Amino acid sequence: MHSLSHALAGLIVGILFFFNREILLRDYILFIILSTFMDLDHIVSLFRNKSKYHLRTSIQEPFAVFFVGIPFGYVLFWLFGDFIYFWLCILLYIVHVGLDYLCIFEAFPLAPFSTKIIKHEGQGFIFPVVSEWKERKKEFPKTIDEKYVIYVLLGILGVTILIRYFFSPFV
Questions:
Q1: pLDDT tens for each residue of 40-66
Q2: Which tens digits make up the pLDDT trace of 63-102?
Q3: Which of 114, 96, 123, 100 minimizes the C-alpha distance to 34?
Q4: Confidence (pLDDT) at 20
Q5: In which domain, by residue range, is 109 found?
Q6: What's the number of domains the chain is made of?
Q7: What secondary structure letter does DSSP report for 146?
Q8: pTM of the model as a whole
Q9: Is 82 helix (H, G, I), strand (E, B) or coil?
Q10: 60: which DSSP letter?
């Protein structure tokens, strides 16, 4: 999925998760960073001359929550002194992985322990908006274009902000 989709979903989940708390600017920035930082592995994959279609590494698979998400959550807890940042990190990591699994990309749910169980390419219903995939759209005719997912997420974000504005005691 595109980083914009992850960022919007992270903002929505973060605002809802912090609904009864005052949200500072650093929190909004943290929502975006925590929901998109896993995609940095794409840069590493490009330097390793991987195909543009297979940029995922094992840090974007479910087990990475234990090896990357939990330790990073403890770092945030230590930095901010509030355990809610630990849970926020875990939650946004799970949301990122979940969104990626809705996409048509190939995935390895048990990575790095096993690559024998595969979510094959096409076993998803969201078609990515990244340009490398545009010529392959005809191979996946029953998928939803990710731009519509972005529109829906923008709508949900707007409603979430309105609800927070009218119902939150910290506004």
A1: 887 777 677 666 666 678 889 999 999
A2: 999 999 999 999 999 999 999 999 999 999 999 999 999 9
A3: 96
A4: 85
A5: 3-167
A6: 1
A7: H
A8: 0.89
A9: coil
A10: G
Cα-based distances in Å from 45 to 39, 62, 108, 113, 114: 10, 19, 16, 19, 19
Q: How far is CA 133 from CA 15, 19, 96, 139, 143, in A?
A: 32, 37, 20, 10, 13
Residue pair 72/96 in contact by the 8 Å Cβ criterion? no
* Residue found under tokens 């998803």: 124
Facing residues of 143 across strands? Answer: none
- For residue 137, pLDDT over 90 is answered with no
Average pLDDT over all residues of the chain:
89
- Residue 119, beta-bridge partner list: 107
**Pairwise CA distance, residues 104 & 146, whole Å:** 11
> For 37-145, where are the alpha helices, taking DSSP H only?
41-47, 64, 70-80, 84-102
- Scan for tokens 């009218």, then name that residue: 166
- Rounded alpha-carbon distances, angstroms, from residue 108 to 12, 121, 122: 27, 11, 13
Separation CA 8–CA 150 (nearest Å): 8
Structure confidence at residue 17 (pLDDT): 94
